[in-house]
Design a protein that fits this description.
Belongs to the metallo-dependent hydrolases superfamily. Adenosine and AMP deaminases family. Adenosine deaminase subfamily. InterPro entries: A_deaminase, A_deaminase_dom, Ado/ade_deaminase, Metal_Hydrolase. Pfam families: A_deaminase. The protein has 370 residues and is of the alpha/beta class. It has a single domain, classed as Metal-dependent hydrolases (TIM Barrel), CATH 3.20.20. It is 46% helix and 14% strand. The protein has 16 helices and ten strands. The strands form three sheets. Strands 1-2-3-4 form a four-stranded parallel sheet, sandwiched between helices. A four-stranded parallel sheet has the order 5-6-9-10. α6 packs parallel to α7. The two termini are 18 Å apart.
């Protein structure tokens, strides 16, 4: 990772330098990345009166503080406000457009952004129209970024809420739109009491259609959630997966012993969509210093860096990389590896993944590595 103990650790890149690095993002929630100003604007336009304040700076601070609870369930409560203002065609398209632009401005060249269509039906839209408007917004954002000299490709993941009973319907929706910008399927929400195996029919349908999916597992709940996601549901990736460390024993000398499940995840190269800042906020880990990202990276799991919810965590891909670099002493070669890990794991055809790696990511890091 960072070389022998007698070799000085690399100087952590600055935020400005990181902004120029090409990045790939696999785990970002559309309803968790709104600009505070947009939340206020859409609330005023739609007549939503539930916001805790009417100032963008104060609202940003409120989201960050409210999400900083150490509980996934309380963390998820903050989404009531963002989802409330994402019920109209105008709102959905604006949020999606700004998402693509903001990610591109941060140097993200490929992103998979997820959202739950079933949560955006309050104003009379149906599921297909919800997806249509989000995809239209994403394409507009890609075009806007391109006009400003930034190039990004955004794929959409359709999420089903694990406490609800619409997962098969959302899986069918994902397949219906897979040639129009939807690249996969996901389930999300509180893990405890809502195991992934409750949604087996949705995952069986996705496999039957040769379609990609990821599962939120191993964030607030431990190994049983990860085991079910892999063994019963056949997930391609693990959303978070941080609790895989429950199956890893680290000795006093630093050596690690992997249990059967951890070995299987590593052997099969199952990608871990790790979200460091969010994992601290939800209580999956207590501090960034104790985050198992570095352990998993040193053990050569396929770790990826992700934002989860940029508004709630007051973060970006550049900030997540900076925090990891400052905490664990990573240099450009480490960050390049994590980025290539993500691009290898994207829900794109192989040749398209390879093209982004060879033509965008590697040349971009070659410049930074000097």
């Amino acid at each position: 990772m960072t070389g022998p103990a007698n070799v000085p650790a690399p100087i952590p890149p600055t935020l400005g330098e990181l902004g120029r690095a090409p990045k790939a993002l696999l785990h970002d929630h559309l309803d968790g990345g709104l600009r505070p100003e947009t939340v206020l604007d859409l609330a005023h336009e739609t007549g939503y009166t539930g916001l805790p304040c009417d100032d963008a700076t104060e609202l940003a601070a409120w989201f960050r503080t409210a999400a900083d609870s150490g509980s996934l369930e309380r963390y998820l409560e903050t989404f009531a406000h963002t989802v409330a203002v994402m019920q109209t065609p105008v709102g959905l398209e604006r949020v999606a457009r700004e998402c693509a632009v903001d990610l591109a401005d941060d140097g993200v060249v490929y992103a998979e952004v997820r959202f739950a269509p079933e949560q955006h039906l309050d104003a009379g839209l149906d599921l297909d129209r919800v997806v249509d408007h989000v995809l239209e917004g994403m394409r507009a954002g890609e075009s806007e970024a391109r006009a400003r000299g930034r190039h990004i490709r955004v794929g959409v993941l359709l999420t089903a809420m694990r406490h609800a009973a619409r997962s098969r319907e959302i899986a069918e929706l994902a397949v219906r739109f897979r040639d129009r910008g939807v690249v996969g399927f996901d389930i999300a929400g509180a893990e405890a009491g809502n195991p992934p195996s409750r949604h087996l029919d949705a995952f069986e349908y996705m496999r039957d259609e040769n379609a990609h999916f990821t599962i939120h597992a191993g964030e607030a709940f431990g190994l049983p959630s990860i085991h079910e996601a892999i063994a019963f549901c056949g997930t391609d990736r693990l959303g978070h997966g941080v609790r895989i460390t429950d199956d890893i024993t680290v000795a006093a000398d630093g050596s690690a012993s992997l249990g059967r499940l951890a070995n299987y995840v590593r052997d099969k190269r199952i990608p871990l969509e790790l979200c460091p800042s969010s994992n601290v906020q939800t209580g999956a880990v207590d501090t960034l210093e104790n985050h198992p990202f570095d352990l998993l990276a040193r053990l050569r799991f396929r770790v990826t860096v992700n934002t989860d919810n940029r508004l709630m965590s007051d973060t970006s891909m550049s900030r997540e990389m900076q925090r990891l670099a400052e905490t664990f002493g990573y240099g450009w070669s480490d960050l390049e590896r994590f980025t290539i890990n993500a691009m290898k794991s994207a829900f794109l055809p192989f040749d398209e993944r390879l093209e982004i790696i060879d033509d965008v990511i590697k040349p971009g890091y070659a410049v930074l590595l000097g």
